[in-house]
Amino acid sequence: MNLPDKRGYFGEFGGKFVPETLYLCLEELEAAYLDAKKNKEFINELNYYLKEYAGRPTPLYFAKNLSKYLGIKVYLKREDLLHTGAHKINNSLGQALLAKFMGKKRIIAETGAGQHGVSAATVARLFGLKCDIYMGEEDIKRQKMNVFRIKVLGANVIPVKSGTKTLKDACSEAIRDWVTNVKNTYYLLGSVIGPHPYPMIVRDFQSVIGREAKKQILKKEKRLPDYLVACVGGGSNSLGLFYPFYKQKTVKFIGVEAGGLGKNYGASSLLEGKIGILHGTKSFVLQDDFGQIKNTHSVAAGLDYPGVGPEHAFYKITGRANYVSVKDNQAIEGFNLLSKLEGIIPALEPSHAIYYLKELAKRQKNSLVIVCLSGRGDKDLEIVQKYTKK
Ligand SMILES: *Cc1c(COP(=O)(O)O)cnc(C)c1O
Question: Is 233 left (phi over 0), alpha (psi -120 to 50) or beta?
Fold first, then answer.
């Protein structure tokens, strides 16, 4: 299995649709990554920080109350227990170490809701790197606490005033900075998106989720699961869980996208998007008839992105994974369900996946399911409170 191929393609998806200056940055990055991947010192150091700093391995918890309620056997992969409260730290640790190995002194990152900004600022502190976070002016207004968190961590937030002043504009500004300052600067991308080699690098760093889950389920159940279920924003926690099971065709993958308020008012790129190019990669993109990027909406900020990783596009076209959509109000239902039954308050992103279990349970009684609980719900309490008052 060679995913992606040497040119960075997953079938017809992926690639590097970028100007020449950026092309050179990406080649330097790819060479450094392929070296690091084989370097014992790099691997040992990454494993050390994943264990001692982030808190790996995370438990694979048998959710007995939820299982009884649904009539299927549900295990939760507890990424919510990690330092900073979500799976994003797996990737940030990996890339920050890579930056250190490359001799870079400064990290830049883009952020929408601020979760990736927090995770990048965290690892920058850990490794003593300077850190600038690009964030749209609109998002800065909406996400005051995360902006403050980033500042407490000693990083700098750079407001982006162009375009819609949101995530996609922050992405474009970060890329501009990188091209200008590549000598000392590392661009830490937050999901399996962007030009090659990012979708591969982020997937590899997140695959620790699936590798652990596979060992854990074989130990607990003496067999592979029937289904893996995870929410899809850019697609990194889902691919991290799915990828190590790619060759085991009896294990079915279900990716859950944000349906927002319903058809055409969400962020379901794989279900409602068309093939196009966004941020240097070819994949499914939410766009109008003229190819302009659509405004997306989801109650879960982390799912609110108009594109999706190219490897997911490939899984969709080849039928390796199925993609479904769950709406805002249903995600809130999933949020309450897990809180009430298990005493675990999930982030709104994986609440989409939790809700979908209800649908799955109707058709597939007694099946064995692993869900990626990508993050904890502390950050979302205010949103849920406002939503419930409505
Ligand atoms: C950012 C985020 C996501 C969405 O990103 P993916 O790359 O699709 O994983 C999902 N869950 C949580 C908790 C997040 O913070």
Answer: alpha
> How many DSSP H helices and E strands does the chain contain?
16, 14
**Looking at ligand 1, which residue's alpha carbon is closest to its atom 5?**
233
312 lines ligand 1 (CB under 6 A): no
Residue 189, pLDDT score: 96
Task: Give the position of tokens 């799955």.
Answer: 360
**pTM more than 0.90:** yes
Q: Which of 73, 77, 88, 165 is catalytic?
A: 88
Find the DSSP H helices in the chain. Answer: 20-38, 40-49, 64-70, 88-101, 115-126, 137-142, 144-152, 167-181, 198-206, 208-221, 236-242, 269-272, 310-318, 328-342, 348-363, 381-389
Q: Look up residue 83 and give its two tokens.
A: 């330092």
Distances (CA, A) of 27 to 2, 21, 30: 19, 10, 5
CA 323/CA 256 separation, integer angstroms: 6
Mean pLDDT of the 5-16 span: 97
Confidence at residue 100, expressed as pLDDT on a 0 to 100 scale: 97
347 lines ligand 1 (CB under 6 A): yes
Q: Which is nearest to 66 in space by CA: 384, 381, 346, 347?
A: 346
257 closest CA partner among 288, 297, 289, 226: 297
Pocket test for ligand 1, best of 167, 207, 237 (most atoms within 8 A of CB): 237
Indicate if the pLDDT at residue 259 is higher than 70.
Answer: yes
